[in-house]
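Sanity check record (used in CI):
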Amino acid sequence: MGQAIFWILTALNLAGLAVCFVDKRRAKRKAWRVRERTFFLLALLGGGWGVWGGMYLFRHKTRHWYFVMGIPAVTLVEYGFLAWFLLWR
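Expected output for DUF1294 domain-containing protein:
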């Protein structure tokens, strides 16, 4: 079970990183954008580290307080629960 969770979280984090890259590229081209709730949904599903890293790697969404505060908060709370579940259940 632990290995499956690892691979699922890895895929979600890579997806979060990719979404940040794609949305930043589309923003520069003034094209259709990714919805903001997509970023938060990915973070809630376990891809928060990818979204968080993508925000700073691509300098994307870092001027919006709800991203700067929200994505790290969701990520830390979620991974705290995951650690509790896997280690102390």
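Helices lie at 2-28, 36-57, 65-88. If this sentence no longer matches the regenerated tokens, the check is flagged for review.
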